[in-house]
């Protein structure tokens, strides 16, 4: 595994392109691991037919929600660790981050019991066909065993990012993705375990990643004599710091789940196509989110050292890169929108639906680049309260959009339904981008100091 960079504590990282790239490139390669896990599962399970692929779509949505609502374990931890690191205290940075690790362990065990025990009801909430529902339940019950590992990976990754180390999560992700790919092919197609084999492959890979990252955190903590034992105060602080981001993420997941529910209501073919396009969108999202990760680390460290000007300089640079990165990714997806569906299914109707959705996804990428970068900067600044409030308003604005899509989108065929779903989702991104633009123009988000007051 990698080690902590040699940047002297107390000195905010540079906002130069080289500094941004040194964080963003490894972060990108690490971030794509989770969507690549799902892409491998989708590609392998897709060989089994439309019904297993539709079941995977439902189960993946539940698992991503179960893990996604706790993404604050990475994002919030990055912010508080980076502020301590920028202020000159590596020991303090690791100790505050450790609270997030213990919180992740507790939430992961609890969440695993909930997802595994309520799998039939959680899967049924999407309204899938009985055959697809059975496949989804099988996947969910097995995947629940990996939920604690998923959350531990988030927390440990947040600590390392706050210490300006994105290389170690990269190594863990590469090894995890490779292991998952091999296991999925072996268990699903080789052994013949079906969708259960895909779930077991992912669980094993996730636990391998978690144990590897925790070993690195332990090593770094011992090197500076940091206390790594569970401390009620630190765990409580981690929970309080993460609460606004939890609200923000719950609102975001509600938007995503509403869209999946409408896709399921349209039928198995639109749901299967939407599952594949969502997986592609996730890969693109994490590609652009690499700049947001750099924004979290650089913004937190700069504000921790008292340099708001440097935080703003980094923000301007990364926003430009995010938009142009979105343009480039959009052109690639547009060029491949009829090629990519072939990789996932042999069903012509599902292929047509995937192609239709990819057109909208491609055109929306510049907007996505802007939104993700600014979101990362505000998370790095600890601006969680504003992010929570704005996302609730965005959710309320999305309700009439998705309702209209449900009423009108299913009347013109499966491909048109998938196209309409992604148009609705792009409308959500437009509203969210408007809120982001308004916030970043002001100064209230750029609060300096080793600890940001919760009411700031």
Cα(first) to Cα(last) distance is 37 Å
* Whole-angstrom Rg: 21 Å
Query: How many distinct helices?
Result: 17
How much of the polypeptide forms β-strand, as a percent range?
under 5%
What's the mean pLDDT score? Answer: 83
Largest sheet: none
Write down the secondary-structure element order.
Answer: HHHHHHHHHHHHHHHHH
Oligomer category? single chain
Structurally, the number of domains stands at: 1
Total beta strands: 0
Helix content: over 70%
Low-confidence stretches: 1-14
Structural class: mainly alpha
Which word captures the global form? Answer: globular
Description:
With 456 residues, this protein is mostly helical. The chain has one domain. Helices cover 80% and strands 0% of the residues. It contains 17 helices and no strands. The protein has helices spanning 17-31, 33-46, 50-68, 72-87, 90-117, 119-124, 130-143, 147-162, 167-190, 195-223, 232-266, 268-304, 308-335, 348-363, 365-380, 384-408, 414-441. α8 (147-162) runs parallel beside α10 (195-223), α11 (232-266) packs parallel to α16 (384-408) and α12 (268-304) packs parallel to α14 (348-363). The protein is globular, with a radius of gyration of 21 Å. Mean pLDDT is 83; it is low at 1-14.
